[in-house]
Each structure stands twice: as structure tokens, then as C-alpha cells.
Amino acid sequence: MARHPFFFDGGEELTTLGAAWFVSYSWYNKVDKTHTNWKKVSTYNNRISTYNRTQSYHTYWLKQIIHMNENNLDKNTIGLRGYEVIEMANKLLE
Question: What distance in Å separates the CA atoms of residue 73 and residue 63, rounded to the nearest whole number?
Fold first, then answer.
């Protein structure tokens, strides 16, 4: 899978996580413990470490993600549609 860098604060870390993965894991953490799409990648333990280390960026990243292209977000490997990622990010910001 190609790496799509994000050119904003903390973007390198979000690139490591993946925007869809970040939203999925945030959803699991804050809304629904039964949501496990984030586990569909073998590197999720490493990503959790990055997630925990970058908490100061999380709200900012969610605000960036809601403006991302749905078609690009569709390219994730965790089974979420781009529009779902954006909807989840919006709800996480509420």
C-alpha cells in the first residue's frame, strides 16, 4: 500500500497511523468497544504506541480528516468507506 503523507502538524505521525486507522481506533477508544476494524492490520500494536504518544494532535487531526477526500479515505485496508471515516471523525469531534 502506498504511503500518502499528510503535510500538517503531526502529519508524519498520522501518515504512520493512517487516517482511517486513527479514526477507527479513536472510535473504539471513545465510542464503541465492539468496533474492531482497527485490528485488521498486523501492525496495530505499533500504531497504538504512536496513537498514545500523539494525543496532543488528535482533535486537530480529526478536524483535518473531515475535510479529506472520501475516495482517498476509501483506500484503507480496514474495511471502512471514506464517508464512514468522515462521519465517525465528525461524531468524535462532537
Answer: 15
